[in-house]
């Protein structure tokens, strides 16, 4: 193929078409007319000798050839964008940048207060826009509309960059007057209590929970299911801070990550106990688009968040788990 005869703008069209899987949405994103985008798709089909996108009962679906092309096209576009960007540095003190960070409730309560404090000191004119998982999709992060996602991820696009901030174990948080404390805190005692379930949050709009669908209830209930046991869940919430407030009631308990429970370490109304069964730890990660990997503003933000996480680790690890009694 003679590359001089290839319109490289077509690769931009293809990248957006494969992401949006809609001629109309792709045209809107690029600010061109729908006929122009349809013409671009026709030329792409001629160029690659493949329909690339075909209409099915589920809408426009990428062909096998298109799926093979997608990562290569994305890499080419990222490299070109990086090459033409002007070299610059980030002046934190004078910047008025808005950073948009998707953070789960867990990350928002355990990590973000310190992050905000550091940003206020280093970059007083920077604005931090903290979004919830239901506000954001993977596409928002991929396209750079959201700078960062901080959460525990079951799956994440392979193109994303990511960094683990810390691992966290689990603790049981309950009222000092909870009846289960009158006896040895065994698995049977644990199961006698009423429980507060806290969502493992991902991307997209959430839906109601079915208490009988163990596979969707998350870490704690999956472990209990493997043990042939099941807990009685009285309250479902998507917020760790709400769970800690509800745990002050005398007959319910919350099983949640230690760092979330640690925020209540000075609350005389609550007791923290180690779970009477093994629950695998969770990892908190930050993830971002390859489009922002070499952006100086974003590099500054990533270093700041990573440094804050290291500092919090250093403060928590020496005695953080000791406050959980067995």
Question: What can you tell me about this protein's structure?
Answer:
The protein is an alpha/beta fold and 326 residues long. The chain folds into three domains: 3-84, Winged helix-like DNA-binding domain superfamily/Winged helix DNA-binding domain (Arc Repressor Mutant, subunit A, Orthogonal Bundle), CATH 1.10.10.10; 98-158 and 286-322, 3-Layer(aba) Sandwich (D-Maltodextrin-Binding Protein, domain 2); 170-280, Periplasmic binding protein-like II (D-Maltodextrin-Binding Protein, domain 2), CATH 3.40.190. Helices cover 38% and strands 20% of the residues. The strands form three sheets. The chain has a five-stranded mixed sheet with strand order 4-3-5-12-6. A five-stranded mixed sheet has the order 9-8-10-7-11. Strand 1 (53-56) and strand 2 (59-62) form a beta hairpin. Helix 1 crosses helix 2 (23-30) and helix 1 packs across helix 3. The radius of gyration is 24 Å and the shape is elongated. Mean pLDDT is 86; it is low at 204-208.
